[in-house]
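Q: I have 804 residues here and want to know how they pack in 3D. Can you give me a structure?
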Amino acid sequence: MKKLLIIIMTCYTCLAGTLATFEALAQSPSSLIGKVMDSQGEPIPGIAVVLKESRQGAITDRHGQFSITGIKAATYTIEVSGLRFEKQVFTLTFQTGDKQTRSITLKENTSEMDEVIVTAKSEGRVLELSAKSVQVIETREVKLQSADLGEVMAKSEGVSVQRAGGLGSNTRFALNGLSSDKVRFFYDGIPLDFTPYAFGIANVPVNAIQRVEVYKGVVPIQFGADALGGAVNLASPDVFGGWAGSASYQIGSFNTHRATASINYADDKTGLFVVAGGFYDYTDNNYKIDVAIPNEQGQLQQETVKRFHDGYKAFGTNFRVGIRDKKWANELSLEGYYGNYNKEVQNSQSPGLIDLPQLGIDKAVAANPFGEVVFTGFSQGLNLHYNTNPTEKWELDLKAGYNYNEFVSIDTSSNLYNWHGEVVRVKNQPGEFGQDEHLITKSQNYFVRQQMGYKFSEKHALQLAIAPTYAYRTGDDLLTEGEFDPALDDGYLFDLVSGLEYSGELMNEKLQITTFAKNYRQSIRIESVDPSVEGLQVSERSVNNYGAGSGFRYAWASRFATKLSYEYAYRLPRQNEIFGDGQLTGKNPELKPESSHNVNLQWSFENKASTKTEWQVQGNFFLRRVNDLIFLVTNAEGVGVYDNVWSANSQGVELGGRVKDLIKGLTLHTNSTYQSYFNTSDEGPFASFKGDRIPNTPYFFANGGAEYLLEDVIKKNDRLSIFWNTRYVPPYFIGWESAGLKQYKPETPGQLTHAAGVTQKINIKKAQTALTLEVQNLTDAKVFDFYGVQRPGRAFYIKSTIQF
């Protein structure tokens, strides 16, 4: 804690000194905020508003609103243009610190329907055109559908999302083969653990997200993150002047209910803004699965039953208030949040499959179910954000937060259940997993993300990022009697990730460059009481590592560009890996960081905004060479410890393509990923499997889909879209390829799934409404993401959405 406070005070001292130095020279940039409407007063989305002399601009959102900040004092020609509307041009003069507001009315162009080339770029598009290895997923349309964020992201190349069941189940997210804690998650640049969505990225409501930024292998320094596989940043919707909000409600199979709501208000004159939101999820997850059950003679036979103890309930809320567009601050805001979840556990994540065709059993779940195991938890905290430009060339950005969370695991029943939900036997020893527990894990966490940027010119900039994180963790096993409780060990974890980055544009903006260096520091302290040893037992360890990377993007032509990126990265061990859980997982303070050489070679070819039929093709060759991979090593009793036990390589290729208006209204998209993720260990417990693929990881997956759009079906300006999506994953082995005979090796079955639906969008005055009917797993395929854990079959959903 002292180290964290010293670093924070040092950062603030630097900040105060910088502000004092430039106070006399401080010049706040100006801003232009406005709304574009048609002749009927209806907002127009997708309109480009451009300052021609500076090439700054914005595109109007669904409310017709736009915001352009960072404008230097000068006179500009403002050009407003869009499809089917006449261009409007006027001039505006900005003085230092001006905050101008404009309402703009465009006339429809009834005589000419030539396409207007939009020169302003959205934030997502700017990222895609940068030297960063990033893929942007816009959620404007998918948030109207019933798919959750995990399913949306799984449709992207290079991304694999494996789920142990339905909504709320355990999820393994992987980028180019590297999964779990090797990938870091953020919400508006804040670690996801410091948000209401701390219980898994796959269950984050899509309606709370404007876009998803997937950074593959190479992580920008502004996140202050240590990661091997990359990072995912969820960007929230922009806040414009006036009132705006949205709400959605979804109901469907397995008694599933999902609701989200958000509302925000901003006063452009005072700079005050308020944002509030919340979500609620509930499902019984009582979908049908095939199981193997002994008959009266004790012989296994296949039956189809409903899951009876797999319910999930979660809710969360957040509230943010702040001031923006002031001379002393672009933004100063404070956010509070709370999230809670409750998950019933039906069976272990890998209960095993049985395949006995001679008995009529075709890959049925064979393990015993649980009837009373429950996981619960909550997370709450505060976040502070401060952003300012002390001069035109300097920018300071500070994010800081505090979080307290508790996770509870309850397994105290002595009952044994069958797949019909009946108690068949009472054990002498309680605990359906094996050993009974009522374990509470408590954690207090602090983080700071401080960035200081300096622009040498419009095309060259330098950025420094300092990101300390501090965590204190302890626990309590309520069933442990006596003074000795391993769960009560006190764990202290301090991480510090710092980075310095240069970015620039050369050769008339054809070449973009970014190069950076990072430092990774970690200090660990564990205090425990051992009845066999007198006094307090203390384990301590510190590490200090350096990494570096670069990214290049070259535009060979207006339609063709390539990117090359590299990073030598480290991933510091997490709390659960170091401290264990006090029961089935032991502590390991000597755990070393993982390291990796990450390389991407990307290319894209497109003809956007040049013909009536838009198309785009992109690809990526990737390589990950990882050392000291952290793995949970368990014994025959299921007790284990995380250790550095192997090295691995992941290499492969991603391909994707999209065609819009192949025929009027029809859009097609497809992508595929092949990855060779294999063991390269020369020593340790897995050295004998050198050259084998990493078990339980898909090596190929492909996605495809189509959407057909009809306009003015019910009334003018409404839209009816019919969509279809499909995903294919071939079989893959659960264990090592070289162990045993192929015909006897268990494998996760191949799967081909489809989803289809229809969305009707209607504008009612200033509100946009949508109603979606969707069928997931259309063919009722038998789907497994994990060995032996069957996912839901055919499911029907209705979702209504309103935005105003």
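Q: Anything worth noting?
A: The mean pLDDT is 85. The CA atoms of residues 18 and 694 lie 50 Å apart.
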